[in-house]
Design goal:
mainly alpha, two-stranded parallel ribbon, 2 strands, 81% helix, rod-shaped
């Protein structure tokens, strides 16, 4: 999952953002020149992708933390289970309560993993759509500067 995310990010970074004076004219002719409005749409899509990527990264980090908690809890349960035959009734009940809490934690982890996977798949689809629609376009430098001025003015 992280590899596909990394590949999409690298594809976004490799995409041309605007034409550079003196760029390879053959390459420039092969690419589609975009309008200022298309630049606005692509710029908005890029911003949304960045937010979406942050959300995916946060979901993965939260899921990793939960997985680490599960590993620690599982190790503690395994140790307690070894001593289960020598425990009194209250200790056995305590063990079962800990085991139930552990199972709830595992269920929460599995749900978070499903959500992180869904978010990652949505991000990858959005990145693919962005690449299909925007990555092959060349934006004129004056359009890029105009959009930056608009953004600075709060439009």
């Amino acid at each position: 999952m992280k590899e596909k995310l990394l590949i999409c990010v690298l594809a976004l970074l490799a995409a041309p953002a605007y034409s550079v004076p003196g760029a390879n004219s053959e390459r420039e002719r092969a690419l589609k020149h975009a309008t200022r409005e298309q630049l606005r749409v692509c710029d908005l899509a890029e911003s949304q992708l960045k937010r979406q990527q942050q959300e995916v990264n946060q979901a993965i980090a939260a899921n990793t933390m939960l997985r680490n908690q599960i590993r620690v809890a599982q190790a503690q349960l395994d140790e307690s289970q070894k001593q289960l035959n020598t425990m009194d009734g209250d200790a056995v009940l305590d063990f079962h309560a800990k085991e139930s809490a552990h199972q709830r934690l595992v269920a929460e982890y599995q749900e978070q993993a499903r959500q992180a996977q869904a978010a990652s798949e949505a991000y990858n689809k959005a990145a693919d759509d962005y690449n299909q629609g925007c990555a092959q376009m060349v934006f004129r430098l004056e359009d890029r500067k105009a959009l930056q001025r608009e953004r600075a003015a709060g439009k």
